[in-house]
Amino acid sequence: MDPGQTLERKQPAALIIVLASIMAIGPFSTDMYLPAFLAIARGLATDIAHVGLSLTSYFIGVSVGQMIYGPLLDRFGRKRPLMLGLLAYTAASLGCAFSPTIHVLVMMRFLAGFGACVGIVGSRAVVRDLFSGTEMARMLSLLMMVFGIAPIIAPTIGSFVVSASGWQYIFVVLAAIGLLVFLAMGRFLHETKGHDASISLHPRDVVLEYVDVFRNKVFLTYGLVTAAATAGFFAYIAGSAFVYMGLLGFTETEFGFIYGGNVIGLVLSNQVNRILLRKHDIVKLLRTVTALQFLLIALLLTGSLTGFAGKAAILCLIFCYLFGFGCITSNAIALALEPFTKNAGTASALIGSLQMVAGALSSGLLSCLHNGTMIPMISMMTGCTCIGLLLIFGPGPVTNRAQRDL
User: Fold this and answer.
1) Which of 200, 148, 127 is nearest to 31 (CA)?
2) In the chain, what are the domains?
3) Does residue 4 register a pLDDT over 80?
4) What is the rounded distance in angstroms from the CA atom of residue 115 to the CA atom of residue 122?
5) pLDDT given at position 385
6) Which residues contact residue 307 at a Cβ distance below 8 angstroms, ignoring those fewer than 6 apart?
7) Comparison of pLDDT for 210 and 30, the residue scoring more
8) What does the alpha-carbon distance between residue 218 and residue 399 come to, in Å, rounded to a whole number?
9) Which of 7-21, 119-133, 337-351 has the lowest mean pLDDT?
10) What is the DSSP string of 185-222?
């Protein structure tokens, strides 16, 4: 029997669902309240631009929180910081529901992001505690497959809640989700790493720990591969509405179906990745998928520049690009975390921060390059894939375990 299957069967389904649910709090927290922007603006007597600051503050909270939770997860074990973060998220979500002004809402969303970010950092650290190598990549793919359901259903739930009850109840629902996940985690998640007093929380030592992790050749290579892939994905997110509706002429409803179909492709890609990892080496698979992704998106860029890319070709090639993204990130994250056992929380937090920074830079750059065509979006997606390809085939990757147990 395949060792990956053996290890997976030892883990109860409840644990997988709990870990995926912790990770899914992030997309629920963003995608579920997007349909309520207009209602929030009316309710708090402000404009959409100021409501958008609540999304920005949420992502700032996520970025800051990840760097703080990483060392805490290594020092105090996985479970206690996870539960603390979820409690903070639940309380902050309730605070959002009762916010009297947009300024309070922006602050509460920052605190919600600060609490929610522990989910993805802690879940990856738990997976690293239980698995390594190919088995870790397969388990991350499984979690991402379950986690991927959230972006599909969250906007629909948000639209229903805001039309039926008002925007405040979206945050009540988010708080209820946080509480339910907190209770489920207390019941089904067992500690996978004990308290380690040797992990210092002195600011200087924490900074040095992050520097040591970042300097690890394996982490640096595959962490940057993950960041490059994420930057390309954020370029798609930032530009897709304009391309599909503004240029290709799809309606809002049609755009919703297209966007949802692409998310389903992301979910399916993780299942395909799990199957392929049973028979193929993780590094070879990562190289192959990245090379194919580059060829497809470069083909789309060529078609965009020459004017030969029709609607069907654009839809198909972007779907394939996103399908590859699911495989690339799961495998690259697994490879980046492979050298670490003692400080997997710190490594997981650093990967998350790299992704957030890459996504923010990508979105901002796309706004600056906007010229009324799809070329800036496709060019950035192509460029990011090219960077990942150069990193993977360059001199950086190390596949042995000489740097393990840092």
Assistant:
1) 148
2) 1-199 (1.20.1250.20), 201-394 (1.20.1250.20)
3) no
4) 12
5) 96
6) none
7) 210
8) 7
9) 7-21
10) HHHHPPPSS---TTS---HHHHHHHHHHHHH-HHHHHH
Tokens 């710190």 belong to which residue?
346
Find the farthest-apart pair of alpha carbons in the chain and give their distance in angstroms, rounded.
Answer: 62
**398 Cβ partners below 8 Å, 6+ apart?**
217, 218, 221
Residues 6+ apart with CB under 8 A from 150: 24, 26, 27, 28, 31
Cα separations (Å) of 106 from 42, 113, 399? 16, 11, 44
Q: Which amino acid is at 270?
A: N
Q: Which band of pLDDT confidence, cut at 50, 70 and 90, is reported for residue 12?
A: low
Residue 278 has a CB neighbour count (10 Å cut-off) of 12
Q: Which residue carries 């297209």 as its tokens?
A: 258
Please state the rounded mean pLDDT for residues 276-284. 91
- How far apart, in Å, do the first and last CA atoms of the chain sit? 31
Give the per-residue pLDDT at 86: 95
Helices vs. strands in the chain: H and E counts, helices first: 17, 0
d(CA 319, CA 326): 11
* Residue 289 to residue 324: CA distance in whole angstroms: 6
Distance CA 344, CA 404 (A): 11
What is the Cα–Cα distance from 236 to 43, expressed in whole angstroms? Answer: 31
Q: What is the pLDDT of residue 323?
A: 93
| 144: its two tokens | 């991402």
Tokens describing residue 93: 């979500």
Query: How many CB atoms neighbour CB 183 within 10 A?
Result: 12
Asked if residue 207 has pLDDT above 70, the reply is: yes
Q: How far apart are CA 395 and CA 24, in angstroms?
A: 35
pLDDT value of residue 177? 95
CB 21 within 8 A of CB 181: yes
In whole angstroms, give the CA distance from residue 360 to residue 16.
30
Rounded Cα distance, 99 and 105, in Å = 5
The CA R_g of the chain, rounded to the nearest whole Å, is: 21
Q: With contact defined as beta carbons under 8 Å apart, do 362 and 388 qualify?
A: no
What is the mean predicted confidence (pLDDT) over 102-109?
95
pTM of the predicted model as reported, rounded to 2 decimal places? 0.82
48-59 residue pLDDT tens: 878 888 888 898
